[in-house]
């Protein structure tokens, strides 16, 4: 599941592109809060005045820091307009402002270049590709990866049941 918020709609478009790639549902916190949380959550917020949106931080806090969940975080901002330094700044500061609230396992993160007026089609494509990438790991609703290992007798064993996140 994808959970996000937005003020002017760009994060909505980005979340929907991720959702399309991932083949999962996106929840806009301005409209509805999901009643039940899945084990894998893609969480996104734009940055306004150096801060993630408060409802996204509130969502994390109200759900016990998403403890026990596997999370991929994305932020939408314009800091990378200021070149490599801006991008680094966004990576360290903006992503950390979200990640430091999370008690679950953050397994992936992305910065997306947002926009103010003209939609950034490159960002939409990147978001869709990221969704596809995440689907490869967390395809459909199945969180458990299939891993085959040889046991001591040399027979293949399905270890799916043994892997815990
Ligand atoms: C009033 C305002 C303040 C913003 N502040 C920041 C900021 O502090 N850092 C940044 O990198 N981008 C900033 N941005 C850029 C937004 O993060 C970007 O436009 C984003 O795509 C907005 O997301 P939304 O359309 O989902 O609301 C700001 C944009 C606006 C309009």
From TrEMBL:
The lineage of its organism: Archaea, Methanobacteriati, Methanobacteriota, Thermococci, Thermococcales. Residues 1-135 form the Flavodoxin-like domain. This is Flavodoxin domain-containing protein. It holds the Pfam family Flavodoxin_5. It comes from the Archaea. InterPro entries: Flavodoxin/NO_synth, Flavodoxin_CS, Flavodoxin_dom, Flavoprotein-like_sf.
């Amino acid at each position: 599941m994808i959970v996000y918020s937005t003020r002017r709609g760009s994060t909505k478009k980005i979340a929907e592109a991720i959702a399309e790639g991932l083949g999962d549902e996106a929840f806009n916190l301005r409209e509805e809060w999901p009643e039940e949380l899945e084990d894998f959550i893609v969480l996104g917020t734009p940055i306004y005045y150096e801060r993630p949106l408060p409802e996204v931080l509130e969502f994390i806090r109200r759900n016990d820091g998403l403890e026990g969940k596997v999370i991929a975080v994305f932020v939408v901002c314009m800091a990378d307009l200021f070149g490599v330094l801006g991008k680094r700044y966004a990576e360290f500061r903006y992503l950390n402002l979200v990640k430091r609230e999370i008690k679950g396992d953050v397994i992936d993160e992305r910065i997306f270049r947002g926009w103010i007026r003209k939609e950034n089609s490159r960002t939409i494509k990147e978001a869709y590709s990221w969704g596809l990438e995440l689907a490869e790991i967390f395809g459909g609703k199945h969180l458990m990866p299939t891993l085959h290992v040889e046991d001591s007798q040399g027979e293949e064993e399905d270890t799916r049941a043994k892997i815990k996140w």
